[in-house]
Amino acid sequence: MQNAQKIVSEDQAAGNIELLRHFLADRFLFDPDAHIDPDASLIGTGVLDSTGAMELVFFLEEKFGIEVADTELVPQNLDSLHKIGAYVERKTSAAS
Under 8 Å CB-to-CB from 95, ≥6 apart: which residues? Predict the structure, then answer.
């Protein structure tokens, strides 16, 4: 049973990352099919700036039903697709 839960969790995480990639690519690169390296810094590569980061936060709160605290607005949570995906996973798991 634990392996099945792990697979579902991995599938959900991959789906979340793809959803995030699509949002960022469409909204900030104006190409919904644009590739974004999941480990690359979104700020360092110019995908996000401070205004874009706030749009991302609004998206996360609306799409995933989470609340992003001011203290959580740090690169460790929001500076790459993988970091955002892990952050969303932590927040949604904590809410369950």
Answer: 65, 66
**What is the distance, to the nearest Å, from the Cα of residue 7 to the centroid of all Cα atoms in its chain?**
19
Give the start-to-end residue ranges of the domains of the chain: 2-95
Token pair 């099919």: residue: 33
Q: Which two tokens stand for residue 22?
A: 């699509």
What tokens does 12 get? 């959900």
Q: Which amino acid is at 52?
A: G
CA separation for the pair 63, 24 (Å, rounded): 13
Structure tokens at 61: 């709160």
Q: At what angle do helices 50-64 and 81-95 cross, to 10 degrees?
A: 40
- The pTM is what? 0.87
2-95, superfamily in CATH? ACP-like (1.10.1200.10)
**Tens digit of pLDDT for each residue in 18-67?**
999 999 999 999 999 999 999 999 999 999 999 999 999 999 999 999 99
